[in-house]
Design goal:
The complex is a heterodimer of chains A (255) and B (687). Chain A is α/β, with parallel strands linked by helices. Chain A has a single domain, classed as P-loop containing nucleotide triphosphate hydrolases (Rossmann fold, 3-Layer(aba) Sandwich). Chain A is built from eight helices and ten strands. In chain A, strands 6-7-8-3-9-10 form a six-stranded mixed sheet, sandwiched between helices. In chain A, β1 and β2 form a beta hairpin. The radius of gyration of chain A is 18 Å and the shape is globular. Chain B is an alpha+beta fold and 687 residues long. Among the domains of chain B are: 195 residues, no CATH class; 188 residues, no CATH class. Helix content of chain B is 66%, strand content 7%. In chain B, α2 runs antiparallel to α20. Chain B is elongated and about 100 Å long. Classes of the chains: A alpha/beta (255), B alpha+beta (687). At the A-B interface, α2, α3 and α4 of A face α12 and α20 of B.
């Protein structure tokens, strides 16, 4: 399988000499194209720092992160904005749709920010809308949509730019169980139907069980890795719980 | 002590939110001081008694206007502080949940208001004191007085007045704040930020219809105040275009709020470019709720522009008028030939009657004033009148019509009559047009606009008049422009000019002497003027009765009047400008707070800071310019109306004063715009 994301020996320190915190400690892993990977860890394990480094919101202290063939740790400020816009897609837990814009406009905005010509915008939006089956709600405002519909619009916006990688930080963190399920199912849809590569950070075993692969992080290092393969989601969930138990610590409260 | 600390910290924390509030308060205090300190500046000026009287009048008017201004500022401050309180609802909610009583929160607010009030007063006064030094130059310049020695003026009276007026305003703010805290419920304090607005789209057809109606209304109002101005004769009829203008302004904003979005949406290339769609949606979602305040702001800007430009131009036009209207240095006149039946048996009337038999020259020599010594170009003319010969005798067949149209005019007032050769003497002296008449002709000289209009209606009917036993026919079918007496305005209501042989000395009414001073420069002229004025100290001065107007006194009066209007106009104009800009800025800032979430979303989906700032700038710029544009369009017509009304003061090009107004507008309105932008940028900044 083609390697999409390569995290190579990444270190991230916070603080100064007298008070040094190693958020990421020599961490390396790879994500292949079309994978749905969950990164699990307790709070303070460094998982969000890792995601921020990949999202180019934060800078690594040492090491390299490669997306495709591009080393994103070497990008300059102007290139960073372009990179984030064009190569990455973000999905947020509270949809983050603009309430003043219609569904269509919300999706189109992601493209118009990058100054894509109007004709292309129209074509792309309708294309994605067809795939996600949201053509009928394109002209509705967010307040007229159900939670699931909002989520689909948000997903469409995340992938409209054809990002290489979709990032999700604690996407279910503040959702009730029904909405969580809806969101995670839409991740599966994106992954299965559109072959979108998704990297999700979570501390919730239930969310993680929707992924193809789960990477456990503890103290800035990889602790364990689980692959779903042909297991059912239930079996995979039990496996994750086992690791969580071994991991101990405050991850337990995720149950 | 704890509360005091909390109050100080709160202010420091929210200093950015308070920036506009502070700015407005300081500006308000400074302007209030500057205009109330004018009094102490004028004391230093080296001016004549005439000017001093006008300055006194101006100071009285300024303090009257100050009361009005303090009302406007008071409302503005209360409005602004309410906005700031709203912004801090959550903070108060936290205090309440922590167990702080409402009384204590009120105390914190009181302290905050007190501190902010004190600081803004001090800063505002300091700025005001320095600004008033510039003002004193302007004051001296306006009254054309020499500012021989520059002194640093500090008016304790104005300081006290400012402190008292603003103290009362702050007190009101405190009361309002306490009331709003006591009335609030905890749940509302927490929930107030979580209201999501439904996007309502207006019916486009209705919008177009309303827009067209508004345009028609406005067009009619514009027509009324410019071309159709003649129909605006009564006070009530002036209200029609004003009310129509207000209504149509509101309707235009209402319909535009629904239309603009739809129109731009048709141009997909623009709509889907960068953050344009977001900006437009932002605007249309707000315009819906802001239509009313936009209307108020637009109208206030309109008033500001008109008041500033016309008040600034009045002074120029008044003084420029004088050159043509006051061609000689002095005009003396006295009533002649008072007959026994026209007088009463009092000493005063006896004196008048005796004096009326003397010529002006004779009277003046009684008080040791030798006209030949001081005057040159002396021209003496006479007017005649017949008690029974009034306007009604010159109106001919138009009388009935005129009586109906001008029911309050006294048609029986006796008319002034002058011989042709006398009038031509005056015309020659003034450089005006001279006339010729046949033995049976007459003409009327007038320049007072509304009288000219009435007389022209009469003259159109070719009225034949019977005067002193002669029958005369009108030479022209309209009044001839001209005047005999000097004055600052066109006030000649009409003099009937007749051939020399028509008049009879029996009907001699008054003698008018026009002359220039025998002087080569300004100082010598002033000396002669003073000598002439000192006549009243002569022991014989109570034995003569002469009316005099001099160029110098007319000049001073109109310069002073012009300066007065300018100052009051400036004062009101600036306050109006500040108020409208501040309201707009506060509205915009409160929106920015609500919009922080939206900007965060933009940031998350990949818009960079530059794009976001650009979008913010566009949004604020549109909100500031839309009411301004409509106000400017209103002003184009409003100023023409002002010009027509002020025509008696002269007809001066307004370019200069409009430029001045534009400068004020750019500085103050632009200043508020910039502050709003920077504050909003701060609010939506990612922290």
């Amino acid at each position: 399988m083609e390697k999409l994301l390569q995290v190579q020996e990444v270190e991230k320190y916070y603080g100064n000499k007298s008070n040094l915190t190693k958020a990421l400690n020599y961490i390396s892993f790879e994500v292949s194209k079309g994978e749905f990977v969950a990164i699990m860890g307790a709070s303070g394990s460094g998982k969000t720092t890792l995601l921020n480094c990949i999202a180019t919101i934060d800078k690594v202290t040492s090491g390299h992160i490669l997306l495709g063939n591009e080393d994103i740790t070497k990008l300059k400020k102007n290139e960073l904005n372009r990179f984030r816009r064009e190569e990455l897609g973000f999905i947020f837990q509270d949809f983050n749709l603009l309430d003043t814009l219609t569904g269509y406009e919300n999706i189109a905005l992601a493209l118009s920010i990058s100054n894509v010509p109007v004709k292309k915008i129209e074509k792309r939006v309708l294309e994605v809308a067809k795939k996600l089956n949201i053509e009928s709600i394109l002209n509705k405002y967010p307040y007229q949509m159900s939670g699931g519909e909002k989520q689909r619009i948000a997903s469409a916006r995340a992938i409209i730019t054809n990002p290489k990688l979709v990032l999700a930080d604690e996407p279910t963190g503040a959702l009730d169980s029904k909405s969580s399920r809806m969101l995670l199912e839409s991740f599966n849809e994106l992954n299965n139907m559109l072959h979108t590569t998704i990297l999700m950070v979570t501390h919730d075993a239930f969310s993680a069980s929707y992924a193809n692969r789960v990477i456990f992080i503890k103290d800035g290092k990889i602790f364990n890795e689980l692959i779903k393969a042909d297991k059912t989601r239930k079996e995979f969930f039990d496996e994750i719980i086992d690791v969580v138990t071994i991991l101990g610590g405050d991850l337990n409260d995720a149950l | 002590m704890m509360l005091f600390k909390l109050a100080i910290k709160n202010i420091r924390k929210s200093i950015k939110d308070y920036a506009i509030y502070f700015f407005t308060l300081i500006l308000g205090v400074a302007i209030f001081y500057v205009f109330n300190a004018i009094e102490s500046q004028t004391v230093l000026l080296n001016v004549t008694k005439n000017t001093l009287a006008i300055i006194d009048l101006m100071i009285d008017m300024l303090s009257g206007v100050s009361v009005f201004v303090s009302f406007i500022l008071g409302f503005l401050i209360i409005y602004a502080s309410r906005f700031l309180i709203k912004r801090r609802n959550k903070e108060f909610g936290i205090y309440l949940t922590l167990g702080m009583s409402k009384g204590k929160i009120s105390k914190i607010l009181l302290l905050e208001t007190l501190i902010i009030g004190a600081i803004s007063l001090v800063i505002g006064l300091i700025i005001g004191i320095f600004a008033s030094q510039f003002m004193s130059v302007l004051v001296a310049n306006s009254f054309e007085a020499d500012l021989t020695h520059f002194t640093f003026v500090f008016s304790m009276k104005a300081v006290m007045k400012t402190i008292i007026y603003f103290g009362i305003m702050y007190l009101l703010v405190m009361i309002f704040n306490v009331l709003s805290i006591n009335r609030s419920k905890l749940i509302d304090l927490f929930a107030s930020s979580k209201k999501s607005e439904e996007v309502k789209m207006k019916n486009p057809l209705l919008c177009i219809l309303v827009f067209i109606i508004a345009i028609i209304f406005l067009g009619y109002a514009y027509y009324k105040v410019t071309r159709g101005i003649e129909s605006l004769t009564t006070t009530e009829s002036i209200f029609i275009p004003i009310i129509l203008g207000c209504i149509s302004t509101f309707l235009i904003f209402w319909s535009l709020s629904g239309l603009i979005l739809r129109i731009v949406m048709c141009f997909k290339n623009i709509y889907y470019k960068g953050l344009n769609s977001f900006v437009l949606r932002q605007i249309s979602s707000k315009v819906n709720t802001m239509v009313f305040s936009m209307t108020v702001i637009c109208l206030m800007l309109f008033v500001t522009i008109c008041v500033l430009s016309s008040s600034l131009s009045i002074k120029n036009s008044m003084t420029s008028n004088l050159k043509s209207l006051v061609p000689v240095d002095i005009e003396l006149s006295k009533i002649r030939n008072i007959s026994d039946e026209d007088t009463y048996e009092t000493d005063y009337h006896k004196m008048l009657q005796i004096d009326s038999n003397r010529t002006i020259e004779e009277s003046l020599s009684l008080v040791d004033f030798d006209v030949n010594k001081y005057f040159k170009d002396m021209t003496t003319v006479y007017t005649y009148s017949d008690t029974y010969f009034g306007f009604d005798d010159t109106a001919g067949t138009a009388l009935e019509k005129l009586k109906k149209e001008y029911p309050y005019y006294i048609f029986e007032a006796s008319e002034e009559i002058m011989t042709l050769s006398d009038y031509n003497k005056v015309a020659r002296l003034y450089g005006n047009k001279e006339y010729t008449l046949k033995d049976n002709e007459y003409l009327i000289i007038a320049d007072y606009e509304s009288m000219v209009k009435m007389r022209n209606i009469a003259l159109k009917t070719k009225p034949v008049i019977n005067l002193f036993g002669h029958t005369l026919y009108p030479k022209y079918d309209e009044c001839q422009r001209g005047f005999v007496r000097i004055s600052s305005n066109h006030i000649n209501t009409g003099i009937i000019i007749v051939p020399d042989n028509v008049v009879d000395d029996k009907y001699l009414r008054s003698e008018i002497m026009l002359a220039n001073y025998k002087a080569s420069d300004k100082n010598e002229k002033q000396d002669i003027e003073n000598t002439f004025l000192s006549i009243e100290n002569n022991s014989n001065s109570n034995k003569i009765n002469i009316n005099a107007s001099t160029k110098i006194s007319i000049y001073e009066a109109s310069v002073g009047l012009g300066a007065m209007v300018t100052f009051i106009g400036l004062y009101l104009g600036i306050i109006f400008l500040i108020s409208s800009a501040a309201i707009l800025a506060l509205k915009e800032l409160s929106e920015s707070t609500d919009n922080k979430i939206r900007y965060d979303i933009l940031r998350k989906i990949g818009a960079d800071e530059q794009q976001i700032n650009h979008a913010l700038l566009k949004q604020i710029a549109i909100f500031f310019t839309v009411p301004l544009i409509l106000a400017i369009i209103h002003s184009v017509f409003g100023l023409q109306f002002c010009k027509t009304i002020l025509i008696t003061f002269g007809n001066e090009e307004m370019t200069k004063s409009i430029t001045m107004t534009a400068i004020f507008l750019i500085i103050i309105y632009g200043g508020y715009f910039m502050i709003t932008y920077y504050c909003s940028k701060n609010i939506i900044k990612n922290k």
